[in-house]
Amino acid sequence: MSSPSDLSLPLYLGLSQWSHNHWQQSIYGKGCKNGDRLARYAEVFHTVEGNTTFYAIPSMTTVKNWNDATPESFRFTFKIPQTITHQQQLRHSNQSLVDFLNTMSPVEEKTGVWMIQLPARFSPHDLPLLDAFLDQFPRHFTTGVEVRHPAFFAKGEEEKALNRMLLEKGSNRIIMDSRPVFSAIANTEAVIDAQKKKPRVPVHAIATADNPVIRFIGHPDDACNDPFFKNWLQRLPLWFKEGKTPYLFIHTPDNNAAPESARRLYNVLRDHLISENNTLSPLPELAIPSAAEISTPQISLL
Question: Are 262 and 15 in contact (CB under 8 A)?
Fold first, then answer.
């Protein structure tokens, strides 16, 4: 069976983190130490949301360890620190960004998208700040921008201005699809917490550059995700044909079953491409062993 490291992929699939205690029986295997989790994760998935950098800048030694733990084809997507995006709101941030990127330099070649997540108070009036901030990145870096202000979803002149700027800069608009989790009844702590923290914004599936990023926030009952994922069965193949390479991140309210949900939805997409007689190279098989398989030492993760 092929490993993600052996393939040139039309799609990068991943989760919102690489370390989760509940995944001991779905990814890591018995006896896997915390320090080995990233390596095990990277044997199954192609990318990951690097949320850790949003909250704190790691040491360069830690960053080097991340690089050493992953194959050459693995792609991180690291968030710009919240000190820059939320506290400074991109103002007077040139040196802060330079320092951050310097620290992250050991994984520069493996970083697929540098993610700029902006707070809801970042409004259309602040677009000149984003314009100038994007110019601070090296030209060969790929960036993605996630906005949350309602005006950027109103299909008016303000949203057009955002999209036009991202197109001109070659920056991807990050797409938050939180419809599934908000369709769930808020009767568990995980769902209540997810609905409190995740933005409830319309899904505008626009590709402003070559690496559209989809953050799919799933329903706790995985089967309930299908009506919402149906839209992506149409959109993703169109992007493939245009030569784009999307990033698809699967979340669940507590992320306990996120690996299994990602595997199933990925296979739904694979089956759809096959049924449509798509002429593109097929998506590789993604294998996550069952709890019974992973407890047997002879079974490989892939």
Answer: yes
Is residue 174 within 8 A of residue 233, CB to CB? The reply is no
Residue 295: predicted pLDDT: 42
pLDDT of residue 298: 33
Residue spans of alpha helices (H) in 135-257:
157-169, 179-182, 189-197, 226-241
Three-state DSSP class for 53? helix
- Separation of alpha carbons 251 and 259, rounded Å: 9
pLDDT, one tens digit per residue, over 167-199 is: 999 999 999 999 999 999 999 999 999 999 999
Average pLDDT, the chain: 89
Q: What CATH architecture applies to the domain 4-294? A: Alpha-Beta Barrel (3.20)
Q: How confident is the model at residue 38 (pLDDT cuts 50, 70, 90)?
A: very high
**Total count of residues recorded for the chain:** 302
List of long-range contacts for 95-98, beta carbons under 8 Å, 24+ apart: 97/133, 97/136, 97/137, 98/136
d(CA 225, CA 228): 5
- Share of the chain residues as helix, strand and coil, in percent rounded to the nearest 5: 45, 15, 40
